Amino acid sequence: MIRHRSATLSILIAQMLAAPLALPSSAFADEAPAPEATSAPASAERGERIEVTGSRIKRIDTEGVSPVTTITRKDIEKSGYNSVSDVLRESTSNSFGSMREASGSNAAGNAEVNLRGLGSSNTLVLLNGERLPADAVTGAVDLNMIPLAAVERVEILKDGASAIYGSDALGGVVNIITRKDFSGNEASFKGSLAQQYKGGSRADVGLVNGVNGEKLNMVNVVQFRNNWDVKSKDRPWTDHNLSTSGNPGSYRNSGDKWHADPNCPSSMILHTPSGDYCQFNTSDYSTELPELRQFSVMSESHYEASSNLKLTARIGGTHRLVKWSYAPAPGTFTIPGASAPSLPGATPGTDLQVKYRLTDLGTRDSEVTTYGGNVLLGADLDIGRGWNLGLTTAYNTIYTDNRGVNGYAITDTIVSDIQNGTYRPFDTGNKGSLENARYVPSEVTKSQIATTELKTSGELVQMPAGALGLAAGIQMAYQEYLDRYDDQSVDGKVFGNAGSSGGGSRSSQAVYSELSIPAFRDFELQVAGRYDHYSDFGSTINPKVAALYHFTKDLLVRGSVGTGFKAPLMQELHAASSDSYETFIDAVACKAERAAGGDTPSCLPAQYEVIGNGNPGLKEEKSISFNLGSVYQATRDLSLGVDFYLTKTKNVVGIDYDEMTAAEAAGIDVNQYGIKVHRDSNGYIESIEAPLQNLASQDVAGMDISVGYSLGKFKLSTDQSQLFFFKEEGFPGTGKKDKLGTNGMPKWRNSTTLSYLPADRHTINLTAGTIGGHEKSVPEEGSLSHYTQLDLQYVYSLKDSEFGFGIVNVLGTTPPLDDSNPTKPLDVTLYDQIGRQVLATYKVKF
Fold it and tell me: Tell me, what's the pLDDT at 303?
């Protein structure tokens, strides 16, 4: 991958016309493809040329040089899921899990996909081939913005594809294809009732209307879904979470050790080297999964204006309301010495620092309202001799308003109320009131992307083995993001809440081309290249070469090599200074405690304050990917697929704080990387200042295996993703370490489905999803075993209707719990926390 700072348009075009004829000048190592497409789109079955994910050249044969796994609408309906994110989360290629709905932020209703474990922001998500906007908070696409009722299929390309699609395609591409060729009306209902524990039930209603005429094809979709919340106290692994910010609280004179309030029950006092704290069980007040209500609409039309001109229009919108609660606000404030009460262990007349929780104001309740909209207009012109010219313009936007509707207060007002006697935090009999200190903090985010693309594809010339195909195009895009907190939060005046505003915009231009070369019979060569220029970091060229060979009509082999890149997220470039609390093990303090003997609390994961900010000097992340795979149709009833892959990435944005403190413990000066670690007189971390940097690198290799077999009325399919290594250097100087098998990084995942069709109209599906074992957060404490969840569903089909009944997590198994990490015993990115659910579905056409 070659990086440039400027280029004229003429040079740009010349480079791109030549790019498909050039191989990468250097390579890092080698990688391989993903499982096989399970079915062909209906249009391909009719002989129409279509564009398949991984290539821009239209073709009849859906089997291209890039491996694509397809999740069909029938697969989705069998699962009983009510969101696109649910569908993708269970994919075996979602190696280390991914973000799902969770209380605690402006992105509480978001869900993402993380292919190969390379990061959600490194997985490109498309809607009918068009890029979707990244969320302004997470930097990745929120899959929940797409109504599942509108989805016809999901195509997963697990191959680096920057040469075809540009930035963010390092880990792969997810292309969500909406429904077409639908006529009539359809109503559907899906509901799940949490049976094992309280909370977590779901309901979904969808309506679809379609017109499929001679010239006009239109599909209209309306969907409503409701997810009920899950309270922390209703799950055995989250019902006891103690915090050192309590009510009664703790206090100290500046620089001294902490003292628990004399009114604190002895059972709730925590003794530490830095003093005694009065603890508080936050689980009695918090929600783990938020309440979610979402309404979505989408309408897409295709109109044949003439024999050679087709027009496309799409408009969609989503409104989502998410509600979640956390325990009363924790924080620290200082009472001036003149007003400070006389307390044991404190010096009278000296400023008193108080660590406290505002139970008087109730729980911190947040309501997050999200609006999403998308518009697309397109025209496809047949210009003769097998060539077509397409013009598409699209606009996508997401706006979110997060308001803390209860439980927040202004710190200065609290202190003022204490000074004038209105509020008395150490008087258990009559504390007074904090009503005039109440405050409603807010955070507003917005992300949008506008794109225009002009492309052409067709056949250049007939060769002895077939037509030489070409696709070429020009893209222009404008992206913008905004993240704005209220002024009081920015100034740090809200008790237990803080935030920093940020915002930015960028424009980009790209030119790409792709050749499909039938070099000889049964052999296809793809050569592609793309030039991207970004207004905020520069330019990059990414080539790709791929080949496919049919040894026989039943056996094909394919492979590819290509470079990739990810432009720095605008949040990473422009974010203002902000506080966060990262969980890691402080290797410096742990080393000191072990040397001293006795207790070693610092050797356990804990939260530490990190002050971070954006960095306008960030470079793009670079990668090179290798793929090699084969598909074999052994018999009519047996198919086999295997794919090997390797991806090497450098300039990865981020800091591994475990490795950073390990580097510090090994004597590496972290200040040279702009990082400042502030420690108290005892050597414990008080805070860390760490601007974003291109400090990490990764090497990932693995294998995907897929098997499909039919025997009479039985059908068996299994997909296995096996990682060979996941080497990462999270901080310079620490060296690359294979983190595969460490906490949160299982070596393998498997999904196996057995279908039984006892008679016409009846189908029974049993699915086993298994996640491999991995270490606990503290490796010395052992490992977590592999985990299997069994799901069962029965479907009865009539001519125009369908009934379904099922059980999710039939055996009610509990995911493995990490007792070495009491603050986070369940990894919710990997495992579901709802438990056993009873599922019912109904669909009718009219």
Answer: 96
